[in-house]
Amino acid sequence: MTQIDIKKGSINKDILFLLLAILSVFIIIIGFLYFGKLKSDAFENTASNYKILFENGITKEINGKLTGSSLIGVGISENLTIVDALKRKDYVLLRSEIDKIQKSVKNNTQYKGIKFQLISADKKTIFRTWKSKKRR
Question: Which end of the chain is more exposed for a tag (fewer CB within 10 A), N or C?
Fold first, then answer.
């Protein structure tokens, strides 16, 4: 009888150990799935927050600057002194007028360090307010 009880006890211990091992593996798998989901949700929330930030902040800023640039461009195109200086290729007068516009924009708007580049219909630079730095 003792041998049967010992074998029976040993089998019960094996079954208990096996059940505990299966339960442990199951808990580990559930844990990985749960924390993986949390990580995925956190990533989605972060991406969503950046999207909202971009749409509400950066997009408005870009649109504001584009609108401002368009208005400045229209103002330059209607400035008869600039139009005349371009026709006569009088770059000294053109520079003087553009400098006045730059100063006015700097003093009366939020834009600082503004630069101008006039481009012809065939996409060639006619005039710009900065000097290019060519590499040697």
Answer: C
